[in-house]
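Quick illustration, no need to memorize.
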Amino acid sequence: MTSVTENWAKCNRLLARPALEAAQERLGQFEQNKSHGIQADLHQMNMTGEKRAKLEGLKHALACHDIRELSRIALQDLLSKPAELMGEFSEESDYENAMKHIEKENADDTRTQLRRLWKETYYWRMIQQRAKMIGPLPMSSGRKTEITPQEKLAAERLIVAMGHGDHRNTIFKWRSYLRLLSDLRDRGTTAFLLCRTSEFKAYFFQHPKELDTLLSWNKVYEFPLRQLRLRVIAEEANDFSGKSDIEEEWLRDRLHAPQNMRWGDHPSAWDQDSTEYENFLADHSLKPTSGKSNTYVLRHGIKAQFGRNMAIYVSFVPYEEEPDKRTLGNKTASTELLAVAPLVAVAPGDFLGIFPGRLRYTGQKPTRAIRGPVPNLWLDHSEAIGKLNKMKVAKAGEMTNVCLAWKGVNEVKGDKSFCQYLRVLVIATRHILPFD
């Protein structure tokens, strides 16, 4: 309850502090609407007596500078019933519309948070601009820094306004941290700044001079994070092919990829000649264990275990340094090397993706193929290519990072009589560190 009590005080302080400005802005918007002629008249006609009384109460509290009443009104607005969630929801479309409203609110909240984080990187610039307007000041005692007395004074006012208090040590740390954020923005570390976490802030708040460390991290992560963003956007458009990973020409060159290659991170269909599929059904009666499509599994994970779905984080990792400067495992890395690795820590049992290929049922092994769970069944990956095709194949007795699991699939609801196709899941067998 201590944290609840502290948050209650913090929230009420944040509501009360700008209460006058917020009320003035709200009334200003209303007056602006009134000036829009007929539209304003309709607005007045539709305004209920209760809304008109609230508006008059707001005007009176504002005229009296009654912060307590303005804070009460602000809290009352927060606690009002959400009209979009108060319906009967008798129709499916009503419920779907409510879901869309919630999704939009979540997106709006994310945009607001990201914008706030980005604006914070401009605070130091604002401090510098204000410092130029401050006249000469005596040099302060204590540790020497590159920050001028004028910048220190301007920073102190801002940090207090941010609600962090006026303790000398707190102001010193915030001042250095805001300068670090500004330096990172100037160096183009966009992803780090937009998605910095409380852990990030906690560490670099105490170590604000480690700019070089962060820039070295950015050099490693910049390309994989750019690819990750494009993969996420593609998946939201229901594209799980992974083609966004190979858009850049230099990457295709490293893959030695032919112009007419069939790239895909998710296909596992039968050969176009249906004869092999018909022979497979005649010879074997494998029962499906899943009714979900490949794209569903890539989006939600195995058995909807979203927290163990790491497929989106599997990425190509280029090695740019000189051959004798960087290693992959215990081998020297070539400047032309392109590895497949996770961007986050992976645990045993985590789902890493679907091994792409074409299902074949033939007595002759295709050129590049994985043996299936029954004789003569293969996953031919000589033509259909994806990221996971580029994994190194372990030798006999060599420790592996992943295993392949075959699963029968029938997407027809309730039909468990036969397999429409099989997919090959890639599952982690041990803990894997980022970029391993």
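Confidence is low (pLDDT under 50) at residues 38-43, 322-328.
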